[in-house]
């Protein structure tokens, strides 16, 4: 029998639709292993969330998983060769669209000032160092006086903050974002800062968790201030904490090299295509600079274009991921401890140097926090059991210098500069508190705009050309993104 092409096409289409519409019912009817129902007291015993949709943090863009060639990708023999090329893979994560601004930082300080009104040292310590603008041979007094606090600079990148301050901000941002969600969902009540301050003035510091919401002590706060107890907050608040991006994450995101069938140009010099520092395609942007940097002696691009050293965080065009100023404007702190060499010393998947794991006792506390409330005596005995008998896979320890101290990690013959350093520091010329910063800035020449370029500064130090943006790990696979 002869079948017409039209009928055959409809049959094939029906088969395709049937195949595409098939959907797994995993977890929808209960346990596929025992047959017991989920979340039905009369038909089962297990209450559990079996579906999940991840939330995108405010102000962030999702950077999808990708493999790329990390390290120096241009020839420049005049500068330090401290970024060997190697292929690595980065797990999907979230990254701020813009650098953290002065307004963002002033919001943080305002909260600190309200909560710790009785203890001015706490919020004074959070202030950026405005004296970083001083120069012995330049008149920068207007920046010292106005850059951080004046309304005109509200959406310029904050500078004068150390790596440690940036990390404190990330923790604070995590707490405030999660607190906002719980208030909006009516799990907890809004409490004004004046009341919070009154509550903690006569409390011991170890009791602050009852009055100040923190993600680390959310269970303690919920027991004191929540409308319900023993609420499972997985999937309700953010699943990870804000932090600085790792060097590998930052570099991968900076290139903006969105994979096309798992392939892309691995020879990119800047966060945009080509080797030029100006926009070369046709259109209204042709000829415009793509970043804020020093073009030559006495020729600063940002100053010429905006009468300011730094520029607003949305001043230039974004890269392919939609991230602004991944080159120029200000350098940016990243999470890693600096070493002079980066090849063959870290993993190929999510490479990072800087791990400082918490103790087994602290890890045990995090396990106990997920359990129903218990008497302190019982909690202490369970903690001892976990630490002494559970035999955790990884002990709490500082591994910032793991497999380090080798000669390839040294920098030239500068040993005399570090004569009083520890053996590890003498071998590497760098301490475990030296942190990487990347991206180039308003005071750097164009070669520093290459995302593979890396420099370091001690985590307590500050500069007029270093800012930061926050990242957050993505929990679950790509299909969970909302």
Structural overview:
This protein has 482 residues and is of the alpha+beta class. 26% of the residues lie in helices and 10% in strands. The protein has helices at 5-21, 102-115, 120-124, 141-146, 163-184, 193-201, 218-225, 247-255, 301-306, 360-369, 376-389, 423-428, and strands at 60-63, 66-70, 86-90, 93-96, 242-243, 294-296, 299-300, 331-337, 434-438, 455-458, 466-467, 471-473. The radius of gyration is 26 Å and the shape is globular. The protein starts with a helix and ends in a 9-residue tail after the last strand. Residues 260-265 and 411-418 have low confidence and may be disordered.
Keywords:
482 residues; globular; 12 helices; 4-stranded antiparallel sheet; 4-stranded mixed sheet; alpha+beta; 12 strands
TL;DR of this structure?
Helix content is 26%, strand content 10%.
Q: Helix fraction?
A: 25-40%
Number of strands: 12
What average pLDDT do the residues reach?
Answer: 82
Could you give the order of strands across the largest sheet? 1-4-12-5
Strand content: 5-15%
